[in-house]
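User: Can you fold this complex?
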Amino acid sequence: MYRILLAGDGGQGIQLIADIICHSAFHEGHEISQIPNYGLEQRGGVSLAFVQISSESIVYPKFSKPDILLIMSPQARVRAASYLGHDQTEILDIENFKDILEKNNISARSQNIFFLGMIAKKLAEKDLINLNLVKKLLTDKLSSKLGWEQNEKAWDVGVNI
Amino acid sequence: MRRSDDKQFITGAEVVVRAAKDAGAEIMYGYPITPATEVFTGWIRAKEKYLQTEDEIAAGFAVCGAIIAGQKAFTATAGPGHVLMQDALSMSEGMRLPFVAIVAQRGGPSSGTVIYSQQEVTLACLGGNGEGLRFVYSPSSLEELYILTRQAFNDAWQYRFPSILLTDGYLLKTRGVVDWKKIPVIKNIAAKSVVASGANAHLQNIYTLEEELYQKIGDFTNDFKNASAEIMASEEVETQDADILVVAHGIVGASAVKAVKNLRAQKIKAGLFRPITLQPFDNHNFDRLAQKARCILVVESSLGQLARIARFEMAPEIATPMKYLQSPAQGIEPEQIEQAVKDLI
Amino acid sequence: MPENLAKFCPGCGYPIALTVMHRVLKERDVVNDAVLGLDIGCALLAWNFLPINTFQTHHGRVTPVMMGAKNARPESVAIGYTGDGGAYAIGWQYLCHAVRRDDPIMIVVINNTLYGMTGGQTAPTSLQGQVTSTDLTGVTEKEFFGPEFLRPLASPDAFIARTAVNNPAQMMDFYNKALDAQKAGHFSLIEILSFCPTNWGTVGAGTLTHLNDIAKVFKTGEIKK
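Assistant: Here's the predicted assembly.
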């Protein structure tokens, strides 16, 4: 059972990367559970995605002890506070990646793809997903949209961290 | 997304849409309200017949009209919309209309949250100005969501009582893997019109004298009791020698299954009684298990709406103490249930 | 006065409509007498936005709530904010009867031609042909002209009008006239065409263009008897 909690502001693309991770894992034959969590506002609120990947069927969509916790904004940091403090949790806080993001000129709109690359790489190392498939799904989803070069670059940087 | 071996990665809302379609539903009347909206937009995207009405009351009464005319119709709503839907559900109860409503519980009262709760149990079971002659189903997984939606349609049309598929914002928004091969084939009960051409039917929902209504209620209640015997359902997990009997429904029931299995792995004798139909409640099996247990723990995301049913349904001679883990409008994870059971020991 | 982070989407018209109204209330020195009721939808996000008494209500029900509030405290300035769905779908009958009774309340209808908070479903004011998530091939029904339909039911002294968030001068004028009508004991309604880039899928100047397109169908100005 592998648990990933993604947290950011609405509009940062949290749900998009959750979708891609989940569809990739589904393709590998795993049991998956994915659930978003957000409030009223259409924009600007906190957006969470709970992802579980397992070999057995998953009974409950939410959890409090993630294996990976992604925090992409100050609001998300506050919201995710109750999910911190577990030894097993690997925290990816955007604060700690400010330098890398800047150095590689990764735009705000592509930050989520950078983290998708990082997380996908970790999952691939655990044999949970296939990196090429993730890249393909990403390409299918975003290559015809604005800012693809930025996104593709962000993916490459993330995967190669 | 579907893999070649019939497994699909889909949301609860999409499962409901498929179930309604497979059940032979011909039309959906709806009004947008979170977290039920996706059932409506999913039905529309599947190119099925629908109408968005001016409010939930219009949607509910349009469903009634469709049913009277013999068309399998349904609606989906939540929270404040569920409150409004009780008007049409009440008429359906009084006129024996096979009304099917998908209700996605959200935080209450009032606008509460748009997210989740188990706080609409009482409303679903007893919401009209009558005696609660309606079937209420509480699915705990995506598979059960499909099966119980199919059943809601069949039971409604077979026994002619309104049926509420009572789910919640979590289950409808969860995307999970459904193995369609594992789901049994279900035959549909056919719809038929009460006012078919030449039928000369006359349908009341108001009576002149007390005695008439009293008689009617008696007849309806008999029918409901007979139907109940066929319909009531529950699941038991690890109850063989359970000291602590956990009682939970819906997605909290799923959480409790995990909790009970974890507890057993720690040699703690916990078992789970999970009502699948909240109404009629499977009191036969519940009584049997309640009698044997040392203590009952009712777990729910409300302040006692399930507990009220359990208390009411439990045979009066059973003295097993009842305790409660109540987290209104919040999810309850397996670890919380495990801890609550441990605290009881 | 503590600052609250507004939860409206970037580019939303609500903050404009609300702050212009607040300015008018201040100029008329009635800020403390104002009570603002909010229907369900994006209006809810205004619950802690202005430094005036504000309360959320239920969908379509803000009109009878403000009627009750005004009846209880006639010296208050009763204002109800609602979307086009709350006003012309679920709450339509209440508007008709408030108008017939000439309830001395002010109803502001923020018209973005969609159900915004639930993600863009068809509303009564959706334009014919508009594609929404509940009309995938385009809305077939004719547009709903709320102010125009209410006018024949209303007292000649009731103030009924339509304006747009990109016309602050007209908005201010209409708020003043609406509050004058309330002061004289009559009903008032202002429909305000408003930006909704999130659900319109527009960016920057495209949002303004879209609003101007809507304004070709829903004409601004006072609706006179």
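Chain B touches chain C at residues 31-34, 37, 40-41, 44-45, 50, 52, 54-56, 80, 110-111 (CB under 8 Å). DSSP finds twelve helices and 14 strands in chain B.
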